[in-house]
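Before going further, learn to read the protein records used in this course. A complete example follows; check for yourself that the lines match position by position.
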Amino acid sequence: MYQYTQVKESTALGMDIKGVKRYILSLDNHVSIVEALTAFCKEKEIYAGKVSGLGAVNSATFRFLNPATLQYVDKTFEEQMEITNLTGNISCKDKKPYLHLHITASREDYTCIGGHLLDARINGACELFVEDYYLTAVGRRQDEETGLNMYKF
């Protein structure tokens, strides 16, 4: 599902950076980005962190929250696209890793689509950087006003 390496940390002074572990991931072709990243976070027990990356997909489902109705609208795009940017954060909800990901993807005609990523299927490669803030706990709570799962500190 994925391969990874942990980044060896040091500063210009030769001291380790405390409280942050960094990983470089390569997700296998044809896997779900969310499934693979969630599995990695479970394996490494990451409950507070940051994700960034790029790659290629042939299916992506975006989610949009209509603030007037507090209803989610999902839309799936079934076409080959380059991930020009994938960014997000990792927190904890119901004692499990919770991913909040956004993506921008370019199409064959060089236009881009983007937004909140519900999931995507890799078709080519997906390379990610993951930061684990292992000394920090960040949870989630449902906010009734916005309908969003907001940070809970």
Notes: The helical segments are 33-44. Residues 33-44 form the longest helix (12 residues). The mean pLDDT is 94. Residues 2-8+17-146 form a domain with the 60s Ribosomal Protein L30; Chain: A; fold (CATH 3.30.1330.80).
